[in-house]
Amino acid sequence: MYYVIRDSEKLPPSIIHEDHYFAWYNPLKKDHRVEFRGTMNQCYDFMSNHYPQTKRFSLK
Prior knowledge:
With 60 residues, the protein is α+β, with helices and mostly antiparallel strands. The chain contains two helices and four strands.
């Protein structure tokens, strides 16, 4: 499972694996927003449909 994470409105979202998500983020802190959950391909499709202006996706 992968997550599309948005840390800030100024920065593009990131795609992160669930193992790394729980190592780097605390879901109870509310300092980020999970916009989508799915496979890597589904996350790329989501980003290309919702953020077409983002030319390069960051992969953590």
